[in-house]
Write a structure and sequence with these properties.
Helix content of chain A: 40-55%
Strand order of the largest sheet of chain A: 2-5-4-3-1-6-7-8
Structural class of chain A: alpha/beta
Largest interface: A-B, 32 and 32 residues
Number of strands of chain A: 8
Oligomer: homodimer
Number of helices of chain A: 13
Distance between the termini of chain A: 41 Å
Strand content of chain A: 15-25%
Chain lengths: ~325, ~325
């Protein structure tokens, strides 16, 4: 009898713990809508969705981890410029690489799409896929965010980590669908987000198959293959997943088409936007921002009753402690 | 689906009873090598592979289902020509569509890559992704193989269905990696092979995002986006999965690069080729065949000790009864 009571109290404790799967979320509307949605689609009834169809998609930059003062992958590219120039000395005197080498902040601030694309392509190519993974791993293990001095893999949002784990434990297949490079994100997606490589969808460079002494190699080339942003996101979801997600989270206009694509199931889907309005603990930016502009998608959120997560008031914690 | 569930429940029973998981395979070297491999990678020890890394890739045409007298998807395209011409009457007098409409066998036999590509693109585009799935479903539910009068979904290989189910029950994630169209294969991959849409990789047409009265649509365009054949297969495996498979099966030179790509793990991987040498129960063709030519990959199989499955002697049954 004593044992039985003990077991019941342990189980009750577990149930209680299960009742709050989102400890870093303020006990308000956002948390309630998420828990209600997950409860509804996992409980037999009208809104029930079989596990195989529980597809959840998340943007990465600004949705799962921070994106200020500049996209972390762009910081990786800038950090890699010296190594690329060492391999190809002619670049030392060529724009935009010369400005990066000289830390010419004025010139760098004036970089447009063309210069950034040049830097991204040169620093992300010219080696095998295995070698690139090694290069990214070496960077991510040592690089630190200029503002917080934390490793970039700790610049992730604790409430979103809890949401990912909650969904994974509830039978969801969680995907990243990001404008970031797929090979870049795969180096940390599994250990940081619990998202395996086959569930990471992103932008990609051209990759060429070749053989060296009969051994196959995949070589990354300095050309874009796919940009997984805006209209590209639903296209990529269709190509890679072939199902319509029932949950989608983004934070910027680059996610608008993905959010609309997932918003096709009435009460049986949840569409969310992370709104950066916490200048004290993170950053505050939306309609006028150069990085992560949130303008049209914020209007759409109002019209379509999407869940706008207010970082300042909905999140008790922003980054992992 | 019912058939698949039945097969899995029979196999579960067989595994539980310690019986043969591959009842349609002759008790010979092929069956032994498969069972030894699966046992080794799932049993704690030197060859053990964690479930997350148990990736198995299969070609489709000629590996999981038949491909004679012509690729089934090409038959679908030919069957769809009248509907395409009805929508676009100008095509009725234009080659190669006029030859198809007139059933001009001589002209059709002379079709080259250009004519076949034209027919494939015109019959696979000009509608939304949802509409295309409906069109394929309607065809696959009614069309019959010209030689056997069976539905195409019954022109699958019973021993390969057993292998797929055996791997799935052993913690493998099974993928199709085929030159066939990804949207075409997804209509039946789950119910026939137990392979969900997100684990189907194939060739694809260009897809364009648009909105009609605020509702998102993906429109299939008459242009190729990716050919998942030869060098394309390792490229696609890297892009979609991001891991190196530990088991790969193909049947033709179009699979050679994929088989080499997977053949990187010594005793811990299994590379197999289905050899069509059974003119009585299926078809017999290899080095000189127009469809499914198996020449260089057969040489490689000998050099690299890949498993060549001899359809005639290794399989007790070819098609499901």
């Amino acid at each position: 009898m004593l044992f039985k009571l003990l077991l019941i109290s342990i189980l009750l404790g577990a149930l209680k713990a299960n009742a709050d799967p989102l400890p870093s979320w303020h006990d308000g509307e956002a948390r309630t809508r998420i828990i209600d949605f997950v409860t509804n689609v996992t409980t037999p009834g009208e809104a029930y969705v079989p596990p195989a169809e529980r597809i959840a998609v998340f943007d990465n930059d600004g949705t799962l981890w921070a994106e200020q003062p500049l996209y972390f992958q762009l910081q990786f590219a800038l950090d890699r410029v010296p190594a690329v120039v060492a391999d190809n000395p002619a670049l030392a005197k060529t724009p935009p690489f010369n400005s990066v080498l000289k830390h010419d902040r004025e010139a760098m601030a004036a970089f447009g799409h063309k210069e950034i694309a040049q830097i991204l392509l040169q620093t992300h190519s010219g080696m095998t896929t295995d070698e690139f993974a090694d290069v990214v791993n070496a960077w991510i293990d040592t690089a630190r965010h200029p503002g917080t001095d934390r490793p970039y893999t700790e610049m992730v949002y604790q409430p979103m980590l809890e949401l990912l784990a909650f969904l994974q434990l509830s039978g969801f297949k969680t995907y990243i669908v990001s404008g970031g490079g797929v090979a870049f994100m795969r180096t940390f997606s599994e250990r940081v987000y619990g998202i395996p490589p086959e569930q990471v969808i992103g932008s990609s460079v051209q990759v060429e198959y070749t053989e060296v002494e009969g051994q196959p190699r995949l070589i990354r080339k300095p050309g874009l293959s796919f940009i997984d942003d805006k209209e590209g996101k639903p296209v990529a979801i269709n190509l890679h997943i072939g199902r319509i997600p029932i949950l989608a989270f983004g934070n910027s206009d680059g996610d608008l088409q993905m959010l609309k694509w997932a918003d096709r199931c009435g009460e049986n889907c949840l569409i969310g936007i992370v709104h950066h309005n916490d200048a004290e603990r993170e950053w505050a930016y939306d309609r006028d921002s150069h990085i992560g502009r949130l303008d049209k998608a914020l209007d759409a959120a109002g019209e379509r009753r999407w869940l706008v997560v207010d970082m300042k008031s909905d999140w008790l914690t922003v980054f992992p402690r």
